Amino acid sequence: MKTVAIAGTFDTKGTEYLYVKELIESQGLGTFTIHTGVFEPVFKPDVTNKEVAEAANTDIEKLIAKKDRALATEVLSKGMEKLVPELYKHGKFDAIISFGGTGGTSLVTPAMRALPIGIPKVMVSTVASGNTEPYVGTSDIIMMPSVVDVAGLNSISTKIFTNAVFAIAGMLKFENTKVVEKKPLVAATMFGVTTPCITAAREYLEKRGYEVLVFHATGIGGRSMEALVDGGFIEGVLDLTTTEWADEIIGGVLNAGPNRLEAAGKNHIPQVVSVGALDMCNFGPYDSVPEKFAGRNFYKHNPTVTLMRTNKEENEAIGKKLVEKLNLAREKVALFIPLKGVSGIDVEGQPFYGPEENKVLFDTLRNGINRNVVELVEMDCDINEVAFAQAAAQKLIDMMQK
Prior knowledge:
It is built from 14 helices and 14 strands. By secondary structure, it is of the alpha/beta class. The strands form 3 sheets. It has a 6-stranded parallel β-sheet with strand order 7-6-8-9-13-14, sandwiched between helices. A hairpin with a 2-residue loop joins strand 11 and strand 12. The protein is elongated. The relative contact order is 0.09. InterPro entries: Tobamovirus_resist_UPF0261, UPF0261, UPF0261_C, UPF0261_N.
């Protein structure tokens, strides 16, 4: 029998969780309950809060005595993050569901993120319509708005709870029987202004028996790719669009954090890297651009996205950061430089055409990389030319086949 783990505060929301438990069981599914609250639960769980606290090397009685809600949330969350993956490995459940406000969401989502991709994870939350990145991260958690607070059974909450239960029940009951041919997985990074390049590279790789996963380099895209590489899913990385480093260094809205461009190198995964879209830093609507950038070269990509051309100083800083990350690689890495432009709007006649800015970037890379680790390939074309895309793809194939 397929089983759904129900994790939550069974002390303050025990009635609601009992309703959900009975509803799941009415669908012919088993339930496995995990109590994340501080006090005594309304019904007996399969995993007590004492066990959750112990997983975080804490005694629940001491936690109760402190009367510190924030501390309790932090400790129990850490316990859940450690305990839940172990319970899954031991076959205790096949999917997980939870309900809550900011506290309940913060308690359970770290544990959900620690589970493998593909395991059904549903979080019904009062903060599901806001910025969910702190809760979802790079995982496949489904965040569902609770509409009303998770406080009592009423005509709205019961409908939301029912929809959530039926959703996770459907994920478990219906299986995809279509057989998908197993192919080596390649991860590639793309932006709107490098789409022609990645499209040509993807088609080239697919014709030669590879499956290509394309990640939109919007911050979360880069982090998602790095997580999958770290998780052992990826056999080769075509990281041609490293634009997230421009946002990280300059202060744009699409940064991927300080660990971008590390996973492939440290995991001995073949990688081909380029400088795609490093001519730009991303902001929201034009009015949201920080005042300190007044007078810079801007391009309104669409009503909600404003691009700013990177200058010489910024390109030097970006180049140094790429050098630092590339030189960390434990296996050979190939760096491809398109001498005539790094994006669709950084070519002659386009608004971000900047040969002087690019020269600073390219020289910084040439002078900084460790040639024992990084193979440098320079091509007299722009990044979106088919020849560039196919050469980068073939280089990755050669590296993977070795």
